[in-house]
Amino acid sequence: MIELEQARHRLEELGLGQAAQSLDAKLEAASRSQSTYLSFLNELLDAEIQERQRRNVEVRMKLSHLPYRRTLNEFDFSFQPGIDERLIRELAALTFVGRQENVLFLGPPGVGKTHLAVAIAMEAIGQGLPVYFVSLAQLVGDLRKAYEENRLDKRMRVYLRPRILIVDEVGYLPLDPLAANLFFQLVCARYEKGSMILTSNKSFGEWGELMGDPVLATAVLDRLLHHSHIVNIRGNSYRLREKRKTGIYSTPGAQVGQNYPGASGSN
User: Fold this and answer.
1) Domain boundaries, position 33
2) Where does the AAA+ ATPase domain lie (predicted)?
3) pLDDT tens digits for 58-101?
4) Which residues of 124-139 are buried (b: 16+ CB within 10 A; e: fewer)?
5) Confidence (pTM)
6) How far apart are CA 37 and CA 222, in angstroms?
7) What is the pLDDT of residues 236-251, one digit of tens each?
């Protein structure tokens, strides 16, 4: 028993907290199965490695600022049959990140754009890639404050550092000239250096109005779309589907998604 306590204490001194915690259980299991010393040691170290990986994922998840946790397995592709599931699965394999390509999810509110962006982000976090999530309103507000305080370059690095930068809700609020210019600077700085995932309820033809400057909007889109995958979601809102079933709510106007021309695909 003294030797067991000494071993546990030494594991703790080495920073192998999970190994120290699971030592008793691993010894008992090894005794029952008559494992070799080497097998016992490997199982003890595996427990430590798995716990460290779990903690690392939790840290990266916290630093990512994701609004919630969603996986692709939780996404109901049958509710949005227009989405190319094979393309989404390919994006989740993250090869686009190595090529510094972008992903743009287009469609009306509630169709699952942010869910898919978050699900891809969680795959990236699980593979050790740094991710950062921010809405466009939060992004330009943060950069505007940094600009006014003469620390824009320093703050911009926060958005240049992650391998994947997710900018959510592009198009919900128009941008004034300074905000549009700051967004343009960020897109330019990440161009062919890091991937971006954007969600937008606006078609590309409406970005000129969104940014208040068609020429600037063209310059932004030129860089975003040069190496990109475009997923155009035509469908109904997940959030309102139960109300539609009961007849409480019906989609106003024409078919949802009609202002989002084009099909899912890559450029």
Assistant:
1) 2-62
2) 99-231
3) 898 999 999 999 999 999 998 888 899 999 999 999 999 999 99
4) bbeeebebbbbbbeeb
5) 0.80
6) 60
7) 776 655 555 555 545 4
